[in-house]
Amino acid sequence: MATSILITGGAGFIGSHLTRLFVTKYPDYNIVNLDKLTYAGNLENLKDVEDSPNYTFVKGDITDLQLLKELFETHRFTGILHCAAESHVDRSITDPLSFVTTNVVGTASLLQTAKECWKNDLEGKLFYHISTDEVYGSLGETGYFTEETPYDPRSPYSASKASSDHLARAFFHTYHLPVKISNCSNNYGPFHFPEKLIPLCIHNIINNKPLPIYGKGENIRDWLYVEDHVRAIDLIYHEGKIGETYNIGGHNEWTNIDLVKELCRQMDTKLGREAGESEKQITYVKDRAGHDLRYAIDASKLKDELGWLPSLQFEEGISKTIDWYLNNTEWLNHVTSGNYQHYYEQQYHKR
Ligand code: NAD
Ligand code: TYD
Questions:
Q1: For ligand 1, what atom is nearest to the CA of residue 37?
Q2: Atom of ligand 2 nearest to the CA of 259
Q3: Is residue 331 a part of any domain in this protein?
Q4: How many of the other CB atoms lie within 10 Å of CB of 109?
Q5: Ligand 1 atom 15: the closest Cα is on which residue?
Q6: For this structure, is 316 an active site residue?
Q7: Known catalytic membership, residue 157
Q8: How many domains does the chain have?
Q9: Strands 179-184 and 186-188, how do they pair?
C-alpha cells in the first residue's frame, strides 16, 4: 500500500516545517496539504517545496465534510497529520467560537471522515493529532506536565484543543481508529507569525517599536525549536505506539521578561547597536485575561521509548531564529502588510 498522507494546516508555522520535512525526507510518500489559508496560513512558507512531484496543495476547510470525503477518495490516504487549528490564545479570548468551529468541529469532521473512509480496513492507517501542553492548565512554581496530568484547560484556545484531544481518544476507544497524540510546549523558529511573543519582539526590535510585556513578565514558558518538534512528530508517527500520547518539550523554561531581554541582548549585537539599546523598548502592558502562570513539560516518555532529545540549546536556537528574520525581511514585510495573502492568487492562478 503506497503511503499517502494528508497534512492539515501545512501552510502555518509548525505545519510548514512538518510538510517540508515529510516532502523532502520521504520522496515516495504522496503528501497533500489541506489549508484554509487564514491570516496564519502562508504559502510563501513552502515556496521551496511547492513544485515537488510528491506534493499537492488544496485550499479548503477541515470542517467541509464533502471536500474531506473527495480528498480521501482521490488520494486514498493512509495517514493524517492533523495540524490545522486556530492557535493564538489572545484571539481565542476575543473570538472563542471560531476556535470551537475549527479546533473541535474541524477535528471531529476529520475523525469521522477517516472512520467512514477507512471502515474496517485499519491496517497501516494512522490519525496523528497534534496538540499542545496548554490542555494541562497552569503549573505553580514547581512540577511538570506528564502524560498522566489531568486536563485543566483555562483559555478558550486550550479548552478547544482539549476537546479535540478527547475526541481523538474517543474515536480510538470507541471505533478502534488508530490514533496517536502529542502535546508540545511553546515552539519558536522561522516562519512564526509575528503576533506571537518571539517573532513580535524580533519585528518590533528591528523597527524600534515597543516590546509589550503582559503583566509583570513573570509568566514562564518552556520553549522548543520548531525543527526539534517536527523531528519528534516524525519519530512518533513512524515508531510511536497506537493509542498513546507523547509529551514533547524543550526542558527550557524562561520567564517572558528574561526571554525578551535575551532577544534584546542578541539583537543589539547583531544590529550593531549599543548594549542595552533595545531593552529600552520594553513596555509593561495590561495582563492577558486568565493568563496561565507556567508551562513545563516532562518529555521523559519520549526520550525513554523513542530516544528523542532536543538538539538545540536555546541561545543557539534564538540566534538562528533572529538571523532568519533578519535575512528574510521580504517575508516579514509581506506578513506584516498582509501582502502574503495575494500570493495564493498569483501562484495558483498562473497555473
Ligand atoms: P498556526 O496558527 O501558525 O497555523 C495554523 C494553520 O491552520 C494555518 O495555516 C491556517 O491557515 C490553518 N487553518 C486554520 N483553520 C483552518 C481550517 N478551518 N481548515 C483548514 N486549515 C485551517 O499554528 P501553529 O502554531 O503552526 O500550530 C499548529 C498546531 O500545533 C496547532 O494544532 C497547535 O494547537 C499546535 N501547537 C502549537 C504550538 C506553538 O507553540 N505554536 C505548540 C504546541 C502545539
Ligand atoms: P504566546 O506567544 O502568545 O504563546 P502562548 O500564549 O500560547 O504561551 O505568548 C507567550 C507568552 O508571552 C505568554 O505568557 C503571553 C506573553 N506575551 C506577552 O507578554 N506579550 C505579547 O505581546 C504576547 C503576544 C505574549
A1: 11
A2: 12
A3: no
A4: 18
A5: 85
A6: no
A7: yes
A8: 1
A9: unpaired
Tell me how far the alpha carbon of residue 134 lies from the centroid of ligand 1, in angstroms.
14
pLDDT tens-digit profile of 93-110?
A: 999 999 999 999 999 999
72 found inside a domain? yes
Whole-angstrom distance, CA of residue 292 vs CA of residue 155: 9
Residue 138 near residue 150, CB atoms below 8 Å: no
pLDDT at 351: 43
Question: What mean pLDDT, rounded, does the chain reach?
Answer: 96
User: Which of the following is catalytic: 44, 61, 133, 292?
Assistant: 133
**pLDDT tens digits, one per residue of 251-275:** 999 999 999 999 999 999 999 999 9
In a domain, 273, yes or no: no
Taking only the tens place, the pLDDT of each residue in 6-24 is 999 999 999 999 999 999 9
Active site residue 268: no
pLDDT of 335 higher than 50: yes
Task: Categorise residue 217: left if φ over 0, alpha if ψ from -120 to 50, beta otherwise.
Answer: left
Q: How confident is the model at residue 1 (pLDDT cuts 50, 70, 90)?
A: confident
pLDDT score at 343: 67
User: Active-site residue among 128, 136, 144, 157?
Assistant: 157
| CATH classification of the domain holding 73 | 3.40.50.720
> Ligand 2 pocket, 248 CB below 6 A?
no
Between the alpha carbon of residue 190 and those of residues 1, 208, 317, the distances in Å are: 35, 21, 10
- Structural domain including 231 reads 4-191+223-251+293-312
Catalytic residue among 35, 44, 134, 228: 134
Please tell me the pTM assigned to this model: 0.97
Cα Rg, the chain, nearest whole Å:
20
Residue 350 pLDDT > 70: no
Cα dihedral value 181, 247, 320, 38, nearest 10 = 40
Q: Buried b / exposed e across 39-57, counting CB within 10 Å, b at 16+?
A: ebbbbbbbeebbeeebbeb
What is the position in ligand 2's atom list of the atom closest to the CA of 291? 14
> Looking at the domain assignment, is residue 216 inside a domain?
no
What CA–CA distance (Å, rounded) separates 86 from 154? 16
